[in-house]
Request: fold
Amino acid sequence: MLRSASYIATLALCLSTMTAAPLPAFEQEGRMRDAPPLLDTLALWLGANFDLPLAVHNPRLVTLPGPELIAMRYGDGARIAPDRVVALYDEATATIYLSDGWTGRSPAELSILIHEMVHHMQAMAGHRFACPAARERLAYDAQDAWLALFGEDLQSAFDLDPAMLLVGTVCTH
Reply:
């Protein structure tokens, strides 16, 4: 069983729903607003349950329209459905980019932040991987564990089945 899982999950969900306004953790229209309690709470949960060392600093959080996320991930001109890229982590700038529709007001939406926080914590710890896909395994495991706290999983929340996860998390070279 995950240590302190339900307490920390409940706390994180409460922090994310305390106001009707968007979470105060994003750079929107060039303004950066900080929300360390939520990020710190998620990082504590990840550290306690997945042996990830706490990062020295929190990542920047920035929202972008779906097409810009796709261009960052796959390059300009990529023909990917806008809902297929909902977030990404940029190690060079220690920034988590989230879709501009992200609110963090549900376990599924918070699981997206959990996934990207894993990448931030991996980067801050200096973890290295054989290929980019290999770093995804722990991120998906953490995301799935988070969702399980609320009776969901990656398949029910995002239509990601085990075969898709396997293919997306192994090195093929």
Notes: Residues 18-25, 27-33 have pLDDT under 50 and may be disordered.
